Amino acid sequence: MSEPSFFELAQDAKAWPFEQARLIKKRVEEQGVTGGAVIFETGYGPSGLPHIGTFGEVARTTMVRHAFRVLTDDAYPTRLIAFSDDLDGMRKVPPGLPNQDMLAEHLGKPLSDVPDPFGTHESYSAHNNAKLREFLDAFGFEYEFYSATEQYRSGAFDEILLRTLERFDDVMAIMLPTLGPERRATYSPFLPISPSTGRVLYVPMKAIDPKAGTITYEDEDGSDVTTPVTGGAAKLQWKPDFGMRWAALGVDFEMFGKDHQTNAPIYSRICKTLGVAPPVQFVYELFLDEKGEKISKTKGNGIAVEDWLRYATQESLALFNFQKPRAAKRLYFDVIPKAVDEYLNFLDAYPGQEPAQQIENPVWHIHDGAPPTEGSPISFSLLLNLASASSAHDKEILWGFIARRLPDATPESQPLLDKLAGFAVRYFEDFVRPTKRFRAPDQRERDALTALRARFAELDPEEADGEIIQAEVYAVGKEAGFEPLRAWFKALYETLLGQEQGPRFGSFVAIYGVPETIALIDQALAGELAGAD
Q1: Can you give the pLDDT at residue 300?
Q2: How much is the mean pLDDT over the chain?
Q3: E strand or H helix at 512, and its extent?
Q4: How do beta strands 234-236 and 38-44 pair?
Q5: How many CB atoms are located within 10 Å of the residue 532 CB?
Q6: How many angstroms separate the CA atoms of 67 and 533, rounded?
Q7: Which of 51, 183, 195, 484 sits between 20 and 30 A of 69, alpha carbons compared?
Q8: DSSP code of 226?
Q9: Distance CA 229, CA 272 (A)
């Protein structure tokens, strides 16, 4: 009997991308393919540069898109649209940019009409949009870039904007109850762009004419202006714009952060009012910093993508985003080693799993169903501890240790291991070395270390593998009366490595070297390690 295909297994797969894919399949079966393809969308605000949240949203959406294609056996064409809201008015001058005075002169104008402060593109948003495309291209994402300015000004949104004007009262009935008294008195879903100043205006409408497709308002110079809502002469407020965009593009799936959750029903009602069923929506939790506070670009309390990629692989970042997207997670530098090793463990497990397990394995989703066959024979945490014990300043030092246990391994034959060695050295230099704090062993620990040294001296360094060494470490800890036994390992890490946690100690000694570990014990017993602090 042949094994079931991934298509068959996908029908009942429990991984969250498949849960979303089944909802999308149900929607498409009920509504049909309204956008020429099944449309997946992610939104982007071009007032700033792409960041780790941008990566997470596109990576997760890509995982859902792949799950949908497998679930439906590629029965439908699919597209992923990365949409830039670049017709929004610039509300404040972003700090840290050059030409602050020049930017201040253009406050209120669409981001696509604000000159580029860097002088490299035709507008500020064009500069940031280019950075977004470079960012997404660097990760190999398959997507189509859409600009709100192009969509509005080309007439692509004209039909749905005229429909919004026709249903102006219905849209107002949705929006007004969500506003305070002052805002309610002047609110309009349409934001005209002033013909005199070029700014996006938040003004009430004096008149609307659905038949003519126009709105009338008071311009900044006090004159009344009647303008069409089409052709980019006006845009929608952001909440109506969200629902309008879904209707105009035929969006079938969009995910967004929890900060949108209370507004999601408004987006959906707007979309329905415009005659289109809203898409399947997935709300993910926002990242927190190490103190449990929401990560903010303004505060600068998070990790940038380039920070993560300085110390770890793209795949480990993708795994961090894949795992429990609806749970708030702390995103700070200490999570990186764990994410790397979890990725390696999932990758190592994949070849030995049954297809039903493989389709639930995160690496299947991270790699579009085709994970690489080669992982790393050495964990990242072990490489970190090698770097720590040897005070390695470059990865060649680590390769000297690696070659002892893996004589056939080379940077060319083990490219992932070679990358990880480089990451480990950087991480050690930036985060481990500054925090290393050795302590002197107490009397019981001194006696146990002396006993461990004696046992190690009797081992044949060429024959003793990690399991043999680990057994000796266990035996010494039990004989010394450490209870629980993890207190013994904590003592080893604190006295020999200058840290509270570490890898499986036998594996560490096997690759670091028995003679080298004996020398480390001698230094600890002589007070040389603690004295180095």
Answers
A1: 58
A2: 94
A3: helix 505-512
A4: unpaired
A5: 10
A6: 52
A7: 51
A8: E
A9: 20
Please report where in the chains the tokens 């149900």 appear, as a residue. Answer: 26
Chain centroid to CA 523: 43
Give the single-character DSSP code of 294. B
Given the structure tokens 């809201």, which residue do they identify? 85
Helices (DSSP H) in 119-263: which residue ranges? 124-138, 148-154, 158-166, 168-175, 181-186, 238-249
Distance separating alpha carbons of residues 324 and 354, to the nearest angstrom: 23
% of the chain beyond a pLDDT of 90: 87
> Residue 176 contacts by C-beta under 8 Å, 6 or more apart in sequence?
184, 187
CB-based contacts of 133: which residues, under 8 Å, 6+ apart? Answer: 145
Query: Where are the alpha helices (H) located in 352-433, listed in sequence order?
Result: 355-358, 362-366, 380-390, 395-405, 415-427
Query: Could you give the count of Cα atoms lying within 13 Å of 239 in the half-sphere of its Cβ?
Result: 22
Q: For 14-53, b where at least 16 C-beta lie within 10 A, e where not — what string?
A: ebbbbebbbbbbebbeeeeebbeebbbbbbbebbeebbbb
Query: Which helix (H) or strand (E) segment is 192 a member of?
Result: strand 190-192
Distance CA 124, CA 52 (A): 21
Q: Phi and psi of 505, rounded to 5°?
A: -65, -35
Supply the pTM of this predicted model. 0.93
Q: What is the pLDDT of residues 61-95, one digit of tens each?
A: 999 999 999 999 999 999 999 999 999 999 999 88
Side-chain half-sphere exposure of 167, counting CA atoms within 13 A:
19
**SS3 of 81, please?**
strand
pLDDT average per 10 residues of sequence, the chain (533 residues): 88 98 97 92 89 92 98 97 97 93 97 97 96 94 98 98 98 97 95 97 98 98 97 97 97 95 97 98 89 66 85 96 94 93 98 97 98 94 92 93 90 96 96 92 96 96 90 96 95 93 89 94 93 59
Report the distance separating Cα 287 and Cα 317, nearest Å.
13
Distance, CA of 404 to CA of 139 (rounded, Å)? 35
Closest CA to 495 of 429, 428, 450: 450
